[in-house]
Design a protein that fits this description.
globular, six-stranded parallel beta sheet, alpha/beta, 332 residues
Length: 332
C-alpha cells in the first residue's frame, strides 16, 4: 500500500523531490506566470522554449535546458487558436516524452474545433475528430499516458474522438461565475440563469441550483422567412438574468437572447461565456462607448483564449482568470 501511495504522488507531481516544469505557448505567457505565482505549496518552474521560424516559415523550435525534463513532471499550457500554432505545438508535444519526462499534462483551455464535431451534410469534415486524433498520438511517458485537460468543450461527444492512448479530463469555468454571484455586493438583487438554447441548458443546467437561481431557456422559432428568439421556459420578470454559454463568436445569439429577456420584464441582463473568441473584433459591439443595441450590465469571459487580454478594463467586460483552477488541476 505504501508503494502505491508513493507511485500516485509521483504520478500527480506532488512529491517535493521531483521538479514540476511548466512550458507554455508564447501567447499564454501571462497565464503561465500567473499559474506559477499560485505555486506556494508545490513549486512550479517555468520552462523556456524558443519559438522561431526558418526563412521558409516552418517552425524552428528549441527547448532550453532540455536536460531538466528528464525525470520531471512536465506541464504544457497550450493555445491551439490557429493552424500554424497547432502544428508547432503538436510537434513539441510529440517530443517532450522522448526527453524522458516522468509525466506529461497538457493544459488545453480551449478545444478550437469543438463546434465542428459532426457531419450533417455529405462532404463535410468533422475537424474535431482530426484534432483529437492528432492529440491522441502524443507518446506515452515513463509512468503512462499523457493527460489532456480541456475546459467547457463545446459538445461532450468530442471526448470520444480521442483514443485510449491519452487521458482526457473535462473541466468547467462555471465555478468562476458561481463565485462571482455568491460574492456580489447586492445580495438582495434576484438573479436567474438563462440559456440561449437547449444545448447550453443540457451542458450547464445541472451546475446551478434552481432553488437559488431560477432557470430560463431561450429558443429560436421561425416566423415567415425570419428566425426569432423567444423564451421557451421560465419567466424573467423581476430578475437580473445571467446568460450562460460555453463560447461566443459574433455575439449575435447573446444579443437576441438578451433582447427577448428584457422585453419580457428582466430588470437587467449580463452574460458569462467560458471562451471569448470574438473574431473580427466582434467584442466591440458590446462596449458601452459604442452605444450597443442591448446594454449588458456585466459580460464575464475567462482567459482561456489569448485575445481576451484586450477586454481588460473595457466595460461591460470582466475577465476572470483560470490560473487558480489550472494550478489545482496540475496537482490533482
Amino acid at each position: 500500500m505504501a508503494e502505491l501511495i508513493i507511485y500516485q504522488r509521483h504520478t500527480h507531481g506532488v512529491d517535493d523531490d521531483i521538479p514540476t516544469i511548466l512550458f507554455y505557448a508564447q501567447e499564454m505567457k501571462n497565464l503561465a506566470e500567473e499559474i506559477r505565482s499560485c505555486s506556494t505549496e508545490n513549486p512550479i518552474e517555468l520552462g523556456i522554449i524558443d519559438w522561431k521560424e526558418f526563412p521558409d516559415r516552418w517552425p524552428n523550435i528549441f527547448i532550453r535546458n532540455s536536460e531538466r525534463i528528464r525525470n520531471s513532471h512536465v506541464l504544457f499550457l497550450a493555445s491551439l487558436h490557429n493552424p500554424q500554432t497547432i502544428f508547432e505545438q503538436i510537434s513539441l508535444l510529440y517530443h517532450l516524452p522522448k526527453y524522458l519526462c516522468r509525466s506529461l499534462k497538457v493544459l488545453l483551455p480551449y478545444f478550437p474545433t469543438g463546434t465542428m464535431e459532426r457531419i450533417q451534410i455529405q462532404g463535410e469534415i468533422a475537424t474535431a475528430y482530426s484534432l483529437a486524433q492528432m492529440l491522441s498520438a502524443i507518446p506515452l511517458t515513463r509512468t503512462g499516458p499523457c493527460e489532456v485537460v480541456i475546459f467547457d468543450i463545446h459538445a461532450l461527444q468530442n471526448q470520444f474522438y480521442f483514443s485510449s492512448n491519452i487521458i482526457v479530463r473535462l473541466e468547467s469555468t462555471v465555478g468562476l461565475l458561481l463565485h462571482q454571484l455568491e460574492n456580489r455586493q447586492d445580495q438582495d438583487e434576484k438573479y436567474a440563469i438563462a440559456f440561449p438554447d437547449d444545448g447550453a441548458h443540457k451542458r450547464f443546467g445541472q451546475m446551478f441550483d434552481e432553488r437559488t437561481y431560477p432557470v430560463l431557456i431561450c429558443s429560436k422559432i421561425r416566423e415567415g422567412d425570419q428566425r426569432k428568439t423567444t423564451i421557451k421556459e421560465g419567466d424573467p420578470k423581476g430578475y437580473h438574468c445571467m446568460i450562460v454559454d460555453d463560447l461566443v463568436q459574433s455575439g449575435g445569439t447573446l444579443i437576441e437572447c438578451a433582447h427577448a429577456l428584457l422585453q419580457k420584464g428582466a430588470t437587467n441582463v449580463s452574460a458569462f461565456v467560458g471562451h471569448g473568441i470574438f473574431p473580427n473584433d466582434s467584442w466591440k459591439k458590446f462596449l458601452y462607448s459604442e452605444n450597443p443595441k442591448v446594454h449588458f450590465h456585466t459580460f464575464y469571459v475567462t482567459n482561456t483564449y489569448p485575445n481576451t487580454q484586450v477586454l481588460i478594463d473595457k466595460p461591460p467586460f470582466k475577465v476572470l482568470s483560470i490560473a487558480k483552477l489550472l494550478y489545482h488541476i496540475c496537482f490533482t
